[in-house]
Amino acid sequence: MVALMMSMVGIAPAALAEAERDRGSVGGYFRIMTRPDFQGGDGKLGYWNLYGRLLNEGPYGMLELKLDVLQEDPGKKNVWTSVHARIEGGSVQGADVLGGRLDQFRLSQLYARAGNLLFEDVTWQVGTLYYYYGDLGLYDVRPAALFFETVGLSATYKSDDVELLVGVGDSGYFIRGGAYSSILTAGLALRLRPSPKFEIGIGGQVFIEPQVTGNRFAPHVTPGVDYEDFIRGEVVQRFIDDNPGQQDFFPRPEPTSDLSYKGLFYLGFGAGPITWNNLFASVEKRPAENFRTEQSGGREFTIYAKDLTDERYVLTIGNEMQLELIAGKLDLVWGVLIGVHWDDDNSIAPSDDDRAYYSTVLRANYYATPTLHFLVETSLARETSTHGDRYRRFADSIFQATGGLSDPRGLEFGDSDTRDTWQLKLGPVLSPTGLGAWARPSFRFLYGLQHSSQINAFGNSFVESLDQFNEFGSPNQRWHHVLSLEVETWF
Questions:
Q1: CA–CA separation, 295 vs 306, rounded Å?
Q2: Overall pTM > 0.85
Q3: Closest CA to 353 of 322, 310, 324
């Protein structure tokens, strides 16, 4: 009957099917695993993804929603618009300590797009603006990304060989949270594709947090603060020692402004056995901290820290090469990640802002059949603290020190400035969708082994106190083993 009515009015069934194609789509990603750990660990092989993402990540879920409000006609220049939302988080009942609580999930992206509006081949985006050049899949990181923190407006021109994005917005809520202050953000990204096997990109982003007199969350400076007192949390104590009974005259904050930035480089190519190679580099001047508080005499004092935290820099270089060594039988993926952090305000204390790390990960995928694969991955990493000892080689090493000597007010935590870590992961993989290092879903049964120069270099519940009443003791474990039954998929 429907077909008869359509033929009477001259509408072909195929045309109606085209007009009624789905306006909505749902995609996503998840991973879940069980990892028995008989050494007191939390089911992760090491501390973080520097040693490769495999066995160093927990459960995760992501849902990507899209609705075409006005559909795009392929091959035409019609106006179109769509709305997008992403919900994601890292907890699943029975797979981690948080038990799948919904407060561990967030609406991480929400935006609307419109294409060919005012200008052909230009896409406008309002909302979250996250943009990145590509992934280091072995590490699950994106070293060359812009606007992760930003809500605003962007315009992207795209042709077969050129992609240019320009964006503006505000990053204050992401960076400051509840202590919100407007951080004006602007940036651009350019990607050129002169051939299908070669592309190159550059980008940059600037953050400006303006001076606003009277706004307690805007950038301020507390004058006369010594950096060592600031790190130790003794600014107020020092002031009272130098000015007895003058608590009411603690220095007032002085308004100022803050400027930070990020610059990116990307190169992608393929040739011969190199299926694809991604090279990323970024240099970043991080936004300054806002303030910290100290307690004294039952009162809370605020120390504004813009001038003490506004010289923090990060250089990141990452490369990932995918090689096909034996067609249909053996693939390799090789990754390198280098990070150098330095803080020109700090010359005395070990911290995440004064360190360097170097890592390489090599994964081999052997395809016994199109659906039965065997995976072997190994990694080697070195982490170095610029100012003093951060890492503990022995359970009874000193917890705080100055120049290697025990000091209850010392700024150093351990007895070494270096942590070396080696990992090995291997096991069978079932891949219903066939060949490829990134074919999903991936059902994996893996054994993981780690050796670290630091003792107990994995998440654990050990009692670290050296108090004589510690009933449990603290083992000196440098080797760590886990078994993992897991599944990971995109859909």
A1: 20
A2: yes
A3: 310
